[in-house]
Amino acid sequence: MLIYRLSWLWRSACICTFYLALSENLYDTYTARSLATRPWEAGLGSAIAYEGHFPRMNGASHMSPGDSAASEPAPTPINQRIESIDVLRGLVLLGILFMNIPLFGLPHQAAKHPNLSGGIEGLDWWAWFLSGVLWDGKMRALFSMLFGAGAVLLTRRAESAGPEGRARTADIYYRRMLWLMLFGIIDGYVLGWFGDILYWYGVTGLILYPLRRLKPRAIIIAASVILLSGIGMHALGHEKAVRKQREIWSIQAAFAAGHQLRDKDYEKLIAHGERRKEQQALAEKIKKEAEARKAGYFSAIFETASVCTKWNSAPLYMDSDVIPMMLLGIAFANAGVITGRRSTRFYLITALVCLPLGWMIAGRDMLAWSNSGFDIDMVGSYADGAAWSYPTQRLLLALAYLSIVMLIARAGILRFFMQAIAAAGRMPLTNYLAQSVICLFIFTGAGFAMLGEFSRWQLVVLALGIWLAQVIFSTLWLKWFAYGPMEWIWRWLAYRQRPQWRLHDTA
Q1: Any domain includes 277
Q2: Model confidence over 110-135: pLDDT tens digits?
Q3: Over the chain, what is the mean pLDDT?
Q4: Sign of the CA dihedral 325, 97, 190, 433?
Q5: Mean pLDDT of 352-362
Q6: Which pLDDT tens digit goes with each residue over 439-485?
Q7: Which of 96, 173, 289, 371 is least surrounded by CB atoms within 10 angstroms?
Q8: Residue 169, beta-bridge partner list
Q9: SS (H, E, C) 162-227
C-alpha cells in the first residue's frame, strides 16, 4: 500500500515537472514584439476562461477583427460580451455542484448504490431523482460544448493577423491546455476532488485546435460517429444484463410459488446469493472509506487518489462523454448556435422539442433504476443501459438549456437574475476550484469531517447555499477586479506577463 501511494505521488511530480518544463520551452519561443502585439489577449481560450470576444445580443456594435482595441491586452469591455454565454457557464457551475455534492458529502460508491448511503426515501428520493433528471451529465455536456466553442472563439479574431498570428495563437492555446491539466492534477491530488474534469478537459482540448476550422456538418458527423461507436460498445452488454436480471426475477417468482426448479435454475439462484454477499461487503467498504476520509487531510487524499486515477483513465471520456460534446461545441460555435446568431424561432423549436424529450428519457432511466430496488445486479444493467440512453438525454437537455438561456437573454427578462448568474460565469475556474476547497473542509478530516452527516436533500440545500455565496462573491469581486483570482493567475502563467488586476487599472 505504501509503495502504491508513493508511486502515484512520484508520477504526479513527474507529470508536473514535465508540464513546467514544456511550458518554459514554449515561453522561450516568444519575442518582445510578439508580447506587445497579442491580438488574442482579450480572451482566455476556452469555455472555462472565455472572456467574451463578441458583442452581447442587446444591440451593442460589433468590433471588427482589425479593431485596434483588439491589439491591446485588456479585459473585454462589458458592452462587448455575450452575456448569455456567461449565464450558461454560471448555470453549469450550479448544476455541476448539485451533481457533485453527493460525491463530496457521501462515500463515492453512493453514486452507484444510492440505497447504501445518504438515504433514498421521501425527500432524499426526490433529491436523487431530480438530480438525475435535471443535472446529472447534462451540465457536463453543456460545459464541454462551451469548452469546444472556446477553441473557435479564442482564435477567430487572432487568426486575422495572418500566418504569424495563427502560429502565436496555437502557441498560447496549447500552453493554456497544459496549465489546465496541471490545475486538474492539483484539484484531484491536492484538493482531493476525485471527480475533477479539468485534467481531462486539458487533455482532450489538445486535439481540438486543428479541428476548429472544419465545417459544422463535418464536425457533427465526426462527433456522431464517435458517440455511436461508444454507445455500440455497451448495447449488447445492456441487453445481456437485463435478460439476466429478468431471468433471476422469474426464477425467484417460480420458487416462491412452489414450482419445481431445474438444477440450472438453482445454480443461478446460488450465484445470485453470492452477489448479495458482495453487496454486504460493499457496505463495509463504504464505511471504511468514510472513516479514512474523515480521519485527516492526508488520509482523505490517499483514500481518494486511486479513485481519481481511475477516473482520469476512464475510457468513458474518450467515447460518449467529453470529446463528442466538445466537437459539437465547435460546430455550434461555427454555426452561430452558441454565439446567439440563430433565429428566435430556432431556439424556441429546439427548446420545445428537446426539453420534454430529454426529461422523459432521463425520468424513465431513473424510475427503472429505482423500481429495481437498486438491486446489485441492476447496477451493471443500468450503467450499460445508460450508455445508449444517457448520451441521448444529456445532449437533448444541454441543447434545451442552451436554447432557453438564449431566449431569456433576447426577451430581456429576469435581468437581475441573469446578471448575478453571469458574474459567477465570468469566474468559472475560480468557482470550480473553490467548490473543491469548500467541500474539502466541510466533509473531510482537513476541516469539519462531516462526511455522511447530511442526507441527500440536505446536501442539495447545502449546495444551494454554497452556490449563492459564490454568486455574491463573484458579483462583488468583479466590481473592482478585471478577472477572477484563478483566471488572473492562469493568464500570468500562460503569458509570463502580469495582467490587469483592478478593473480600472491600465494593462
Answers
A1: no
A2: 877 788 888 889 999 999 999 999 99
A3: 78
A4: positive
A5: 95
A6: 999 999 999 999 999 999 999 999 999 999 999 999 999 999 989 99
A7: 371
A8: none
A9: CHHHHHHHHHHHHHHHHHHHHHHHHHHHCCCCCCCCHHHHHHHHCCCHHHCCCCHHHHHHHHHHHH
Lowest mean pLDDT among 54-58, 105-109, 432-436: 54-58
Residue-number span of the structural domain to which 302 is assigned:
34-57+72-233+293-495
**Given this model, what pLDDT does residue 84 score?**
81
Cα–Cα distance for residue pair 249/253, rounded to 1 Å: 6
The number of domains in the chain is 1
Residue found under cell 491580438 = 39
pTM comes to: 0.80
What number of CA atoms fall less than 13 Å from residue 207's CA on the CB side?
A: 10
Burial (CB count within 10 angstroms: exposed 0-12, middle 13-18, buried 19+), residue 259 = exposed
**Rounded Cα gap, residues 429 and 435, in angstroms:** 10
Using the predicted structure, report yes or no on whether residue 256 has a pLDDT greater than 70: yes
How far apart, in whole angstroms, are the C-alpha atoms of residue 449 and residue 439?
10
Measured from the Cβ of residue 377, the count of other Cβ atoms closer than 10 Å reads 18
Does residue 347 belong to any structural domain of this protein? yes
Cα(218)–Cα(53) distance, integer angstroms: 25
- Flag whether pLDDT at 296 surpasses 60: yes
For 297, the 3-state DSSP assignment is helix
Reduce the secondary structure of 443-491 to three states and give it as a string: HCCCCCCCCCCCCHHHHHHHHHHHHHHHHHHHHHHCCCECCCHHHHHHH
265 is a domain residue: no
**CA-based R_g, the chain, Å:** 24
Angle of the 415-425 helix axis to the 428-443 helix axis, nearest 10: 80
Residues 186-206 have pLDDT tens digits of: 999 999 999 999 998 998 888
Q: Distance between CA 335 and CA 342 in Å, rounded?
A: 8
